[in-house]
Amino acid sequence: MTATASPSDTKSAAKSAAAPRISFVSLGCPKALVDSERILTHLRAEGYELSRRHDGADVVIVNTCGFLDSAKAESLSAIGEAMAENGRVIVTGCMGAQPEEIREKYPNLLAVTGPQAYESVVAAVHEAVPPAHDPFLDLIPPQGVKLTPRHYAYLKISEGCNNRCSFCIIPSLRGDLVSRPAADVLREAEKLVKAGVKELLVVSQDTSAYGLDTRYAPSRWQDREVRARFYDLAKELGELGAWVRLHYVYPYPHVDEVIPLMAEGRVLPYLDMPLQHASPSVLKRMRRPGNQEKQLDRIRRWREICPDLAIRSTFIVGFPGETDAEFEELLEWIKEARLERVGCFAYEPVKGATANDLGLPVPPEVKAERKRRFMAAQEVVSLRLQRAKVGKRIPVIIDEVGPTVARGRSKSDAPEIDGTVHVASRRPVRPGDIVTVKIERAEAHDLHGLAV
Ligand code: SF4
User: Domain MTTase N-terminal: where (predicted)?
Assistant: First the structure.
């Protein structure tokens, strides 16, 4: 199916004579047509006008189809036509998933993006021809509206999850993993940093699985192609000049690769790795992803490479069928692993989760007692680790400024979930400042010190 967008009505054209004009060719199936509509709706909302002819447009978008050879040929011919008549062409759609084939024939295209990569197409249009000033839309900052304080921001790299942990219903609510192209993530991160964000918190349901769904498809960022791969993205994010904190990283083998990035100071030496348990039999019933065997050896190796590494994890006690022996195994593990930051939940059944079919519920009082023992064991570990920081000078990002002390966080502390560094300072500090603090006192979660 071929559809060329109709021009906007004369009234709106008269209203914005200077608005940039887009010519759009939509090829392929109804799904591609819906993609075209989404792209056009977005661009129209930003004030772009539609042009009936390629030669009257500032840029041409060709949404391609690559289903059959004949569809590919039609797509290539539509691109050729747009290049001949205009020369400023962005290609998207199914054929965009194989950019080499298109670029080989048309090396001077402005951009090639894959199917459903709306953000990439819109970003490519912005780059080719920025939207006209709009007094209403321009009230929205380029980084979008954020609910976090100005100096840190969450950066979502994918949606959904391919795992099927038995206690979790997220995959049935959000579907399988869909990763954003690396260039989209990097563009958003760059905008955030330009807007004053000092700390990027990388989030998703399963951060280390990033790009698995797109077979790590590369996308164009600045002068290079960046693969949608956990390591590649972490490395590029590390170039932006902000703290980069990695959340929800499951212990897949390739996680080892990012530890040197942490040792080099490119990303924060911090891994939020929800392990949930340490007993192989419980992990099996939980159907947890990642290789959890020999985890202690790996953590030891990571610490050898990056001695400052802080690992945060969460655990569930009282999972259906958890025996005394399995719980003791967890308790021993937690003492030996000496994780910096740990949370613990008593298991609660979630409606719709397959773990509900396991039977053998652990009585509430046993769950509560196990949680108490777990937290007490961790408290000892935390206190020892925190006390080792007394006398050291560490960088702290300031979150809030009070009348006498400011509250901030070290590299080992994520906002909302980890500890606080209480900072006394003789000079004024502001939220977002990164100051060096000499640690004077330690508690199991918080530190106290003086800005130097
Ligand atoms: S708990 Fe498991 S299934 Fe649920 S989102 Fe995390 S990895 Fe996916």
Answer: 20-130
